[in-house]
Amino acid sequence: MNDQQLSIFKDDFFAYYRDLLISTEIDSSNNLIVFVRPDLDFDETVAYISDSILDTVVFEEHLDVYVYPFGSNEFITLGIN
């Protein structure tokens, strides 16, 4: 996947989950970094994204999604493919 495709995917991911997220970024290893809103329950939000992600995106290559709660360095990794 090239940088442009990854950027489009990042933007689409954020648009779909915009009510749950503060922002999305791509790191230097081409992983998707996701920041959950601080006013939401982190565990419930991760469970929702995990349960719905395959229904909302078409992604044929492997991608790791690192989900961070606001203000923390700990994260949960969701792997696509």
- What is the architecture at the second tier of CATH? 2-Layer Sandwich
Number of helices: 2
Q: Unreliable segments (pLDDT under 50, ≥5 consecutive)?
A: none
Number of extended strands: 4
- How do the strands line up in the largest sheet? 1-2-3-4
Distance between the termini: 13 Å
Total domain units: 1
Structural class: alpha+beta
Mean pLDDT: 88
Q: CATH topology, which one? A: Alpha-Beta Plaits
Measured by DSSP, the beta-strand proportion falls in 25-35%
The dominant shape is globular
| Name of the level-1 CATH class | Alpha Beta
Radius of gyration (Å)? 12 Å
The amount of helix comes to 25-40%
Name the quaternary structure. Answer: single chain
Largest sheet: 4 strands, mixed
- The SSE string, one letter per element, is HEEHEE
Can you walk through the features of this model?
The chain has 81 residues and is an alpha+beta fold. The protein has one domain: 2-Layer Sandwich (Alpha-Beta Plaits). It contains two helices and four strands, in the order H-E-E-H-E-E. The protein has helices spanning 3-16, 42-56, and strands spanning 21-26, 32-36, 63-69, 76-80. A four-stranded mixed sheet has the order 1-2-3-4, with helices on one face. Strand 2 (32-36), helix 2 and strand 3 form a beta-alpha-beta unit. The radius of gyration is 12 Å and the shape is globular. It starts with a helix and ends with a strand. The model has no long low-confidence stretch (mean pLDDT 88).
